[in-house]
Design goal:
Blueprint: E1 18-21, E2 24-28, E3 31-36, E4 49-54, E5 59-60, E6 65-66, E7 70-78, E8 81-87, H1 91-98, E9 104-111, E10 123-129, H2 134-145, E11 152-156, E12 172-175, E13 182-183, H3 186-196, E14 200-205, H4 208-221, E15 225-228, E16 244-246, E17 252-254, H5 255-258, E18 261-263
Parallel strand pairs: 10-11, 10-14, 11-12, 12-13, 14-15
Antiparallel strand pairs: 1-9, 2-3, 3-8, 4-7, 4-9, 5-6, 7-8, 15-18, 16-17
Helix pairs in contact: 3-4
């Protein structure tokens, strides 16, 4: 499924947030995937994101002061609606991970720019780490639907987190401790793929250090890459300037409106982004 994008490459987004109801919830190791139908929303493009918040108990402390919404890439459009891959890394994500079938979920989106299709007959190579697996799942679905091969290279810290690879079709997996697949960083799998055939476009999402390794590797070989970058976002539509990153030639871009997917050639480094899809 895909939406019709406008002249700027975006799909139309309904104004304001809307409340959805969880239709399914499942676990992949420490990761939680929540699913909710969104009949009034636009169909997202791979790489776009949503701002999420629980309808109930969205706050912490004695006075239950509200948390800011959290930005998450859409992982898939499944039979039970939009799917998001979550990991408990703090109070806000812990509350989202607690949600059960029937609970309410505020969403705003789809937002931002997603991935662009391969050009010049190049093959697609997907490279992800941790929750950066999420936008690669919907991208792989879309490419396979049109008959394109889309090998997925995924890196995780350990065996428990490697369960996140279940979201993609026949991935190659690397783990830091060697407990699943190859031992070492996922970029070693990418290096081997590019040595075999460099006529590719690399699509990557993961922590800043992984994205920087991907960017440097692709620049060294003259391989185009599209990077779904992570940063703390407070609003999702460019008002707060909390997710700016510097680009080559000077100036900044806001990941929420100019990204989160950026061409790797625009960046000197990926180590400027904060944590957090």
């Amino acid at each position: 499924m895909s939406a019709v994008a406008g002249a700027d490459g975006r799909v139309p987004t309904p104004l304001g947030r809307r409340a959805l109801t969880l239709a399914a919830r499942r676990e992949h190791g420490p990761y939680v995937v929540i699913c909710a139908p969104d009949p009034e929303g636009a169909i997202p493009q791979p790489g776009q994101f949503y701002m999420l918040a629980a309808v109930d108990r969205w706050g912490g402390g004695e006075d239950e002061r509200p948390f800011l919404p959290r930005a998450f890439s859409v992982a898939r459009i499944g039979e039970q609606g939009l799917e998001f891959m979550l990991e408990d890394v703090g109070p806000g994500t812990a509350r989202l991970c607690e949600l059960q079938v029937g609970d309410g979920l505020w969403v705003l989106g789809p937002l931002g720019h997603g991935f662009a299709a391969p050009e010049d007959g190049r093959r697609a190579l997907l490279c992800g780490g941790g929750v950066g697996t999420a936008p690669l799942a919907i991208l792989q679905d879309g490419l396979r639907a049109i008959g394109a091969q889309a090998p997925a290279l995924l890196g995780f810290r350990d065996r428990a987190r490697a369960a996140g690879a279940e979201l993609l079709h026949e991935p190659q997996v690397a783990t830091d401790d060697g407990s699943v697949g190859d031992a070492g960083p996922v970029t070693e799998l990418l290096r081997a793929e590019l040595e075999s055939d460099a006529h590719a476009v690399v699509y990557a999402c993961g922590p800043p250090a992984m994205l920087e390794a991907v960017r440097a590797l692709c620049e060294e070989r003259g391989v185009p890459a599209q990077l779904a970058m992570e940063s703390g976002m407070a609003c999702g539509y460019g008002a707060c300037y909390g997710c700016v990153v510097p680009v080559r030639g000077g100036g900044y871009v806001r990941l929420c409106v100019d990204g989160p997917v950026l061409d790797a050639g625009r960046l000197d480094t990926c180590l400027v982004a904060g944590a957090g899809h």
